């Protein structure tokens, strides 16, 4: 029984859900201008967890044929047979229905519609349409990962604002330089499965150059929030410092791609740094609201 429960939990990809929730709470704090109603926060985070879990299980169900071809994913429950495809499909559908009803009945209608859009973009837009067809799959499919800030903002205010758009764009431009380093590490897996991730179809130099471009846009979006919200100088210093640090890592990666004698590419270092960047930036968003100046 414990093994079966663990298998179902594994299908939901808990680590991805954790990262999504990291962006939701600070967004809600900024939207409120302080800490929102405690139970609203709980309801939003629970609903977001259910929605993300649904999307991830649908992803595992649809991708089960290629997951068995990749070393990174061949131990997923649908590949090993711990969970049947039918059971996974029922589980994903149930999670999605509960998530939508949860938001509609306990939070508000705008957040419910945005949740529906997030699930649809990830399942249909990314997994079913883009992932196996274009190297830009993670760019546009990554919109789903940006939706928690819209959901969190609308849960508090019932609407959206330009500040929410700035946060959305931070995550949108952050996604490629976050995911492509991981794709570099597992490019053989993706190639074997026929998934045209950019690192599979382009050399490391092109990937690094594009990462730098997206990183610059990400930094610009984070600074736009400084003006739009507006935030204090503390947030501005943190945003500039974090952005410069992450950009430097991407530039170093490009230099090493151009000249391998300078050392290993360091793709996974950039991957882990991207998580640190996003986490600390959103912590700064939350903390800045409570500063007395």
From TrEMBL:
Its EC number is 2.5.1.141. One of its GO terms (cellular component) is plasma membrane. Pathway: Porphyrin-containing compound metabolism; heme O biosynthesis; heme O from protoheme: step 1/1. It catalyses: heme b + (2E,6E)-farnesyl diphosphate + H2O = Fe(II)-heme o + diphosphate. This is Protoheme IX farnesyltransferase. It comes from Oerskovia turbata. It is a multi-pass membrane protein. Belongs to the UbiA prenyltransferase family. Protoheme IX farnesyltransferase subfamily. It is an enzyme of class 2 (transferase). The keyword Metal-binding does not apply. Gene3D superfamilies: UbiA prenyltransferase (1.10.357.140). Carbon 2 of the heme B porphyrin ring is defined according to the Fischer nomenclature. The lineage of its organism: Bacteria, Bacillati, Actinomycetota, Actinomycetes, Micrococcales.
């Amino acid at each position: 029984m414990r093994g079966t429960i663990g298998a179902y939990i594994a299908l939901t990809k808990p680590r991805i859900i954790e990262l999504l929730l990291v962006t939701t709470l600070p967004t809600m704090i900024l939207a409120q201008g302080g800490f929102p109603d405690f139970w609203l926060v709980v309801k939003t985070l629970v609903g977001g967890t259910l929605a993300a879990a649904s999307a991830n299980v649908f992803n595992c169900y649809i991708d089960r044929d290629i997951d068995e071809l990749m070393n990174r994913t061949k131990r997923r429950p649908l590949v090993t047979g711990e969970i049947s495809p039918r059971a996974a499909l029922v589980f994903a559908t149930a999670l999605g229905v509960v998530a939508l009803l949860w938001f509609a009945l306990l939070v508000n209608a705008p957040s419910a519609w945005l949740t529906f859009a997030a699930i649809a973009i990830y399942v249909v837009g990314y997994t079913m349409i883009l992932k196996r067809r274009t190297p830009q799959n993670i760019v546009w499919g990554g919109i789903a990962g940006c939706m928690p800030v819209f959901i969190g903002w609308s849960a508090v205010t019932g609407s959206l604002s330009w500040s929410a758009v700035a946060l959305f764009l931070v995550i949108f431009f952050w996604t490629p330089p976050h995911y492509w380093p991981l794709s570099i590490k597992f490019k053989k897996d993706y190639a074997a499965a026929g998934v045209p991730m950019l690192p599979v179809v382009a050399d490391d130099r092109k990937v690094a150059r594009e990462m730098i471009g997206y990183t610059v846009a990400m930094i610009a979006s984070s600074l736009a929030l400084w003006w739009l919200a507006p935030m204090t100088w503390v947030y501005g210093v943190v945003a500039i410092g974090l952005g410069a640090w992450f950009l430097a890592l991407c530039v170093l990666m490009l230099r090493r791609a151009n000249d391998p004698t300078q050392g290993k590419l360091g793709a996974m270092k950039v991957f882990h740094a991207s998580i640190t960047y996003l986490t600390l930036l959103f912590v700064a968003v939350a903390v800045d609201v409570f500063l007395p100046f």
